[in-house]
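User: My collaborator and I are trying to settle a disagreement about how two of our proteins should look. Neither of us wants to argue from intuition anymore, so we agreed to look at predicted structures for both before our next call. Could you fold the first one, then the second, and keep them clearly separated?

Assistant: That sounds like a sensible way to settle it. I'll keep them separate. The first protein:
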Amino acid sequence: MGVGRVQHDIPASRNAAAERTEPLVDAQPDRRRTGLDRYAFRRVLAAVCVGLALAGFIAAYVETGFHFEAEGGDGWNYLAAGERLNAGHPLYALSPGDRNVVIVPPYWTVPLLAPPPVAVIWRPLALLGEPSMLVWGIANMVATIATVLYLCWTNGLFGIAATAFLSAPLGLLALSGNVNGFVLAALVAAWSLRSNPVVVGGTLAFAIAMKLTPVLFLLWLIGHGRRPAALATIAGLVVVLAISVVGAGFTAHLDWLQSVPGSRPSPQSLMSLTGLSSSAIFLLSAAAVAVVTRLGDERITFTLAAILTALASPAFYFQALGLLLAAVAPWRDDLFAGRRLRGGTPTTPQAT
């Protein structure tokens, strides 16, 4: 009987103990709170970066202002090139009656350093006269700002932090009227739309025709199995060359090739800083991109190609650093995505 009473009392004692035991504390809210704290911290950090970016843009405006029609600016030189072609004059020499272009030997020995396709684009614009410089400058500014806003929105903290770091050259790039603003937009579009070979081919062909050094992106395409896009880029270059020959003449292209060795790289370029020739810098850049493709991560390859596209140019100036923003295109953070994991925890940063 005693044994029976003990066995009968055991469940009762367990029930009593269970009633006396306080309920377990769920650790999930702590984890959620930690995630939200991190999410809030990233938002605050983003706000600081936005403030720095705005300060850089304002400083650039104070330095240069809106002077797209200034004599000697990039827009002025592009317009002069288009006018020379429309008048049937040599593109890489000044003739009587041509718009004056400042030539600064030994860095600038001809009235246009860019390849002929730039001047061909300007043939119809030149028909507008001097207002064409304002149209071009505003379009370049819109392209630059739109690209910056796109990367800040889609790439989150990566895009915002990069914009803050590069705000000064980006501001100058947006206000310079230089073709680099369009090149930046083209490079970002090439990554964002990389699943469409035709779009990639068109954007990269344009960028290469304008600046030449983006030819490094062909190594990205070939090295990571994007051969249709590589073929589309080559086909695009053939089309651009054909249009350029029709618009500027074959002689203008020969004149440009002859002018390249006569112009010394800018004092800020890698060529001037290292003493290496333009060919050596380009070959080293191509070799670096080719080696990186062996890592198997096309994000890294694209990033390096974007960095070297900006730095390997003989005509490198401070505002060209703005092209480095294209290097952040493959790296994304979901700061503004508004997505939540089950349970309310914000998603974590990611690269894509």
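The second protein, kept apart from the first:
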Amino acid sequence: MGRDCHIFRSHCLIKVEPNMIGADLGAGNARWARVLADRGALMTAVDVLPAPDDLREGVEWVQMRIEDWIKQIDPFVRFDFIMSFNLIHFLDREYVLEHLLPCLAAHVHPGGWMAIRTFCKHPEPVTGMEDRILSLYKPTDILGALPRWRTHRAHTDQDLSEGQCGTTRLWHITDVLAIRPE
């Protein structure tokens, strides 16, 4: 999963130019927000974690749940791109498809893009996350929440990986790179 994840993120990096305004939702340690800021993008990184010590100029850190951030964002704020890697499968499926994605889409400039990566691992439960239900998203689920958006890349990979105790777990990895119509 790691190599493929880097390929998808690298594909997104190609589209980033200096002075673009972007958001990294579920930023974690802000690794990708920092990489994009180094390329000249002005980034908003949102995560429930505290800001990392090595935050760079060009990255604004927002320590907040995505659900709370989207409620308080100014309706006139627009981004050139929004990235969300390995986040939405932790959120309520109905909320993601009916509220979060359409709301995020409204905050993207015409011609801008959203890159979403999500995964699901079977069989459940995932160790350490027994209280979470990981939703399996297909590209059509995500794109259905973005009507009239143009698909640049959308696919689901299945990867057999060795899990704990020698059990085989099937990873479903869905990548969507969608562009808002101009």
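Some points you might bring to the call about the second protein. Residues 162-169 have pLDDT under 50 and may be disordered. Residues 2-151 form a domain with the Rossmann fold fold (CATH 3.40.50.150).
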